[in-house]
Specification:
Layout: E1 15-19, H1 26-32, E2 35-36, E3 40-42, E4 58-60, E5 64-68, E6 80-84, E7 93-97, E8 100-101, E9 108-117, E10 123-130, E11 136-145, E12 152-161, E13 166-175, E14 188-195, E15 199-206, E16 212-220, E17 225-231, E18 234-243, E19 249-260, H2 265-283, H3 287-305, E20 307-310, H4 313-329, H5 356-366, H6 370-382, H7 384-393, H8 415-418, H9 423-439, H10 442-463, E21 465-466, E22 473-474, H11 492-515, H12 517-526, H13 531-542, E23 548-549, E24 554-555, H14 579-582, H15 585-588, H16 599-605, H17 612-622, H18 633-643, H19 647-654, H20 675-689, E25 700-701, E26 711-718, E27 721-728, E28 731-736, E29 742-746, E30 749-753, E31 758-761
Parallel strand pairs: 25-29
Antiparallel strand pairs: 1-9, 2-3, 3-4, 5-6, 7-8, 7-13, 9-10, 10-11, 11-12, 12-19, 13-18, 14-15, 15-16, 16-19, 17-18, 20-26, 21-22, 23-24, 26-27, 27-28, 28-31, 29-30
Helix pairs in contact: 4-20, 5-6, 5-9, 5-20, 6-9, 6-10, 9-10, 9-11, 10-11, 11-12, 11-13, 18-19, 18-20
């Protein structure tokens, strides 16, 4: 199925620019112009309000609500789900002149422009409001979220009368009355409102989960009069401003938000202290200082994380937008934070984190922000108790990580996903393994990783079973990454990931034993590991069934897959997509059509474990059967196509990777950004065209260059330095930014990199 770009924004290497306003695109733009700093996120809705189609969305990482999903008579079904909750509108604002309120849905205006600076993280917007009597007021809006201190944000409005002088009224406040759109109701209970001369604050709890959020604003403006208004869930200050023709009048707001993410007395006491100190602390804050510190944070990030593409302005803008969003979504601001499938840009997928976090997102952070990578993995240790409870519910020992979660509880109400998909658990194990492979941080793995690995291995040892003649072990009644095949036996990906997880767990246990026998014995006692149990894990790993045809070199996706009825996916009418909306549910499962890479995903993750012949055979067999109903799918195919030197095919799959949301390819950007697909776009360049492989003891590169590009470059953090890779039509160069000497493989040759550029001619076969 061909996907078509909906080109709307101006092309610029460092800005996302909207010239003129299209109401039909308002929800898409709200997603595109979202800001976030991991702690909080705000959609790009209009500060001053808008009566047209809009989602006034403010979300805080870890602040969620729950709702019952109905009791089931079957064991293992969840009874409630959790979702990130729409919170306080700290940008709440109304602008009024003589009773006339500006609203771009009903007001007359001209010269509209909105611009997001990817370099600084500052969002600006301006237009001229034309009142009914012909008066014109130029309005300029600016907002940012601090990346330096994730609890802070700023808003600035500049008013310039063009043909009059008079009074403008600004109503600015804090509003907890917003509806959570997916629930259809408000989910906050306001507890307290306070104010001072130039500030106001509000405190509220979520209705069911009783999590707390406190917001405080400080206002700066020259007002001739200030009044205060209070409602049940809203506190507002009304500022009367005298404005002069041709003279700029500035209204500024500084924001601080704090959350309490659990109900423990210790957490609430700490939260309460912050709230009590906030009025004094906010008095000392300066808008320009906070803004400059945040911009400096971004400047440092771009120096270390930028990808430059020469000769392709669209993808240059696209990949910088992707990098920007990855850092906005997560950068290690607070322990216990997660990456939702939509980040903090919308309510779709309920703010849940999925197995994509460890498979698609974690590589970005390992090579751009290793401390953030550690925190993602530490979240899985924090939520290990919930994973163990989930395993019990599914008649397993150990830990069964949820397919979708916020707090650690399973939030997916579809049993075929929540109960049959083991890849969340094995993805966590893969993430720990991948992290250690790159960082060599053995101590982290002993402390944080091993408790997880042991419990996941216990689950694998009880979720699977031996075949009838007891010659092989496998997993029965599962669903692999290809979600178009349900309740299958011996899914190859599931079995293979189970095997390597068990092997890695045993490897870590043996290394701990060799390094520190006392700590090992203490760990064994604490976790109740017996030698018989360890022996059983070894036996299972040794006899894990991997469906494979040695003649064709093809791994069978699951038992019986080769005998499924074949369907030519290219003949499916475009009008049938998305299939979930146009085909009956059971029809999707009755053929060999693949939703997203399954065997091929396994071959990318553990690339060095497979021969080029195996990768080629499986790619050529499975690629024609894949419908790419998942936005994650094309990048995997593109990366493997580059490895197989299918350069035109690779570039075709790359097509919409960097601009899927910017150009609204899936026609659902309005729901929020595709965070994990954004991570896949970064992988598509670094692992794809850059040819990087990170699954062996030494980092490998085989750079290629698409014929459509004049050149490109990227930077990755590796072993306390930054490797800078530059590629042009003829050559590739490598160097370390800080001067360390690092051994890597380039086109299968081991080379020691240093601060001096190593220049290598690109082999003919690697030129697109």
């Amino acid at each position: 199925m061909a996907k078509i770009a909906d080109k709307y924004y101006d092309t610029d290497p460092w800005f996302i620019i909207e010239n003129d306003f299209d109401p039909n695109y308002s929800m898409v733009s709200e997603s595109i112009f979202s800001l976030g700093n991991e702690f909080m996120g705000v959609r790009g809705y209009f500060d001053e309000g808008y009566s047209g189609e809009s989602l006034i969305g403010n979300y805080f990482n870890g602040i969620y609500e729950s709702q019952e999903v109905g009791h089931s008579a079957y064991k293992g079904m969840i009874d409630k789900t959790e979702f990130i909750v729409n919170a306080v509108d700290w940008l709440s604002l109304k602008i009024e002149i003589d009773g006339e309120v500006v609203d771009l849905n009903t007001s007359k205006f001209k010269d509209f422009k909105r611009s997001l600076s990817l370099r600084t993280g500052v969002l600006t917007r301006s237009y001229i409001w034309i009142l009914t009597d012909g008066r014109e007021l130029k309005l300029e809006f600016e907002r940012f979220l601090s990346m330096n201190d994730a609890h802070m944000a700023g808003q600035r409005i500049t008013l310039t009368p063009l043909n009059f002088s008079g009074e403008v009224v600004i109503k600015a406040g804090l509003d907890f009355s917003q509806i959570h759109h997916m629930a259809g109701k408000n989910l906050w209970d306001c507890k307290e409102q306070n104010s001072g001369e130039n500030w106001c604050s509000i405190l509220a709890n979520t209705v069911n989960t009783e999590l707390s959020l406190y917001s405080i604003n400080k206002y700066e403006c020259n007002a001739k009069e200030v009044k205060e208004e209070r409602k049940d869930k809203e506190i507002t200050k009304k500022f009367s401003l005298e404005v002069q023709e041709g003279v700029k009048t500035v209204f500024t707001r500084i924001v601080m938000n704090f959350t309490c993410k659990d109900n423990s007395m210790e957490s609430y006491d700490k939260f309460n202290v912050k709230c009590m100190d906030a009025p004094n602390k906010i008095k000392e804050l300066n808008y320009e200082t906070i803004k400059a510190e945040s911009a400096a944070w971004w400047d440092h990030v771009w120096n270390d994380s930028d990808i430059e593409i020469k000769g392709d302005e669209l993808n240059q803008q696209g990949i910088r937008f992707c990098i920007f969003q990855m850092h906005q979504t997560f950068h290690g601001a607070e322990k216990g934070s997660i990456i939702g499938a939509k980040g903090l840009t919308g309510e779709a997928y309920s703010g849940n984190t999925f197995w994509d976090t460890e498979t698609y997102c974690l590589p970005f952070y390992i090579f751009n922000n290793v401390e953030a990578a550690k925190q993602l993995l530490e979240y899985r240790l924090i939520t290990l108790p919930e994973a163990k409870e989930r395993a019990k519910a599914l008649d397993c020992n150990g830990a069964f990580y949820p397919i979708a979660t916020i707090s650690g509880r399973e939030c997916c109400s579809l049993w075929q996903h929540a109960s049959l998909q083991l890849q969340a658990s094995t993805a966590v194990a893969y993430g720990i393994w991948h992290y250690e492979t790159i960082t060599k941080d053995e101590e982290f793995v002993f402390k944080t990783g091993l408790p997880i690995l042991v419990e996941v291995s216990r689950m694998l040892a009880t979720r699977g079973d031996w075949n009838a003649d007891h010659t092989s072990y496998g997993f029965y009644g599962v669903m692999g990454p290809d979600e178009f095949q349900m309740m299958v036996n011996n899914n190859c990906y599931t079995n293979y990931l189970g095997k390597v997880t068990l092997i890695y767990t045993l490897n870590v246990l043996n290394r701990l034993k060799d390094k520190d026998s006392n700590t090992y014995e203490s760990f064994i006692r604490e976790h109740g590991l017996s030698q018989d149990e360890i022996k059983n894990l070894e036996t299972i790993a040794k006899h894990m069934y991997i469906p494979y045809d040695d003649t064709t070199k093809i791994f069978e996706q699951h038992e019986g897959y080769f005998n499924l009825p074949h369907i030519d996916v290219d003949k499916i009418p475009v009008a049938d997509f998305p299939l979930y909306h146009h085909w009956t549910y059971d029809r999707i499962y009755r053929n060999d059509m693949i939703k997203q890479p399954d065997v091929l995903m396994m071959m990318l993750m553990y690339n060095g474990n497979f021969t080029l012949e195996q990768i080629k055979s499986n790619y050529e067999f499975y690629e024609p059967r894949c419908i790419h109903e998942s936005s994650l799918s094309p990048s995997v195919h593109s990366i493997l196509a580059v490895q197989l030197q299918k350069h035109d095919e690779a570039y075709k799959f790359f097509g919409f990777a960097t601009r899927m949301d910017l150009d609204n390819y899936n026609r659902n950007t309005s729901e929020g950004l595709h965070t994990t697909s954004i991570a896949a776009a970064w992988m598509n360049i670094v692992y794809g065209f850059g040819g990087m492989r990170s699954d062996q003891e030494i980092l490998k590169f085989s750079p290629s260059i698409p014929k459509e590009w004049d050149g490109y470059s990227f930077r990755i953090h590796y072993k306390d330095d930054v490797i800078h890779v530059e590629v042009d039509k003829d050559n590739v160069s490598f160097c370390t930014i800080n001067g360390a000497t690092l051994d890597v493989m380039i086109y299968d040759n081991q080379i020691a990199l240093n601060k001096n550029k190593t220049i290598i001619k690109i082999p003919t076969e690697w030129r697109g």
